[in-house]
Design goal:
Distance between the termini: 80 Å
Bound molecules: pyridoxal-5'-phosphate
Strand order of the largest sheet: 1-7-6-5-4-2-3
Structural class: alpha/beta
Order of helices and strands: HHHEHEHEHEHEEEHHHEHEHEEEH
CATH topology of the largest domain: Aspartate Aminotransferase, domain 2
Strand content: 5-15%
Oligomer: single chain
CATH architecture of the largest domain: 3-Layer(aba) Sandwich
């Protein structure tokens, strides 16, 4: 009999095999055992044919990768610790010193900060293009352009670009395009089949997704995914991902797996309440503009309708308002503070509604012609009753006079 210290580690008990239940097991590991040295030398992690190390994948992460691939219509998926890490992985895998990357001017803010910070330090140039003007994008493609970012809709100003035209420009120039698909979530449109029925499919090359938002659904997980349909591109991303040491925790992967079955139900409910509130805001006197792609007056409405459906379509759970210029920033801040159900916080996709004032003049190269001037507030609509949220907006507006 060995010492208790050893027996507690090398314990003979094995639970019975054949445990089957609705949710997959949670496998947590850094070390993975090999049956013998020959197997250790032979096992290959790159094609997922075996397990070699926790960072290279576990049954839990492989299962999540497969489901996310199915959701977005891709065949290969990498998991990373945040949505921003997904964006960074794509940049680092595809760009070298001297290259240029194109980014929409309404892109997710930290994506622009990464370009202006680390990418610039490493000699990678970036240019911002007008998301609403394909001619501007075309004019900014140069022989040095090696990557193009796309986003539909913009996550603060909600303009909906002509995504198909943008992707066609990338294809014509032979530049890979990566879509930040957090808003669409794989539900509003299919990033790898933008015009269903068309052969070959019109597709982005890479779809990144902040799983932090709708897939997690709880406001309690940070995670991102990088999805492709191209094995060669996937391997380029995967090697960079491995060398950077990016991995996700098993418990977090489990949280996302647990939330995925209700994803489309939640997305539809967020969408329905958001439309109701955006319509209500549009009738109010306080606002110069309401930004929500399903509103006919909102920038890019026709492009949204063409991509996301001529019927009800899908439009996620975000909308923004621009207050009339007679409201000072202090009044708009007081409005945000007066809200009770809406919490002041970043992110979206959880059960609680959120509000955030944004200072657009610090975020854009220039004030876009399609946006009114005034203080902008973005709402992320949760799963509360829309009537209660509307009453909350009303009481907060009434306090700001
Ligand atoms: C939140 C978000 C991200 C980043 O996700 P994190 O997990 O918070 O890093 C990227 N893109 C968009 C559009 C987002 O909304």
């Amino acid at each position: 009999m060995a010492d208790i210290t050893t027996n507690l580690i090398h314990h003979p008990y094995q639970p019975p095999s054949g445990f089957a239940a609705p949710q997959p097991g949670v496998f947590k590991a850094s070390t993975v055992f090999f049956p013998n040295v020959a197997a250790m030398r032979q096992f290959e992690w790159k094609d997922k044919s075996a397990y070699t190390y926790g960072l290279h994948g576990t049954p839990t992460t492989y299962t999540l990768e497969e489901r996310l691939g199915t959701l977005e219509g891709g065949t290969q998926c990498l998991l990373v610790p945040s949505g921003l890490a997904a964006i960074a992985t794509v940049n680092l895998a595809l760009l070298r010193s001297g290259d240029e990357v194109l980014i929409p001017d309404n892109a997710y803010g930290p994506s622009k900060a990464l370009a202006e910070g680390e990418l610039a330090h490493w000699g990678i140039r970036h240019r911002y293009f007008d998301p609403m003007d394909p001619a501007d994008l075309a004019a900014k493609i140069s022989p040095q352009t090696r990557l193009m970012w796309l986003e539909a809709a913009g996550s603060v100003t909600l303009e909906f670009p002509d995504l198909c035209a943008q992707v066609r420009l990338c294809k014509a120039a032979g530049v890979p395009c990566a879509l930040d698909n957090t808003w669409g979530a794989g539900l509003a449109f299919k990033p790898f089949d933008l015009q269903p029925g068309q052969l070959p499919p019109l597709a982005v090359d890479i779809s990144v997704h902040a799983l932090t938002k709708y897939p997690s659904g709880g406001g309690d997980v940070l995670m991102g995914s990088v999805i492709t349909t191209d094995q060669r591109l996937h391997m380029q991303l995967k090697l960079c991902h491995m060398r950077l040491g990016l991995g996700v925790a098993a418990n977090d992967a489990e949280s996302v797996l647990r939330a995925l079955p209700s994803l489309s139900l939640r997305y539809r409910q967020h969408d329905e309440s958001t439309r109701a509130l955006a319509h209500w805001c549009q009738k109010r006197d306080e606002f110069a503009q309401v930004l929500h792609p399903a509103l006919p007056q909102s920038p890019g409405h026709a492009q949204w309708q063409a991509l996301c459906g001529t019927g009800l379509g899908a439009a996620a759970g975000l909308f923004s308002v621009i207050f009339k210029p007679d409201y000072s920033q202090a009044q708009v801040d007081a409005f945000c503070d007066a809200l009770q159900l809406f919490k002041i916080g970043y992110s979206w996709g959880g059960p609680m509604s959120l509000v955030m004032p944004y200072q657009l003049d610090t975020m854009r190269s220039k004030w876009p012609a399609h946006l009114e001037r005034g203080a902008l507030v973005r709402f992320s609509i949760g799963l509360e009753s829309a009537a209660d949220l509307q009453n909350d907006l009303l009481q907060a507006l009434q306090q700001v006079v």
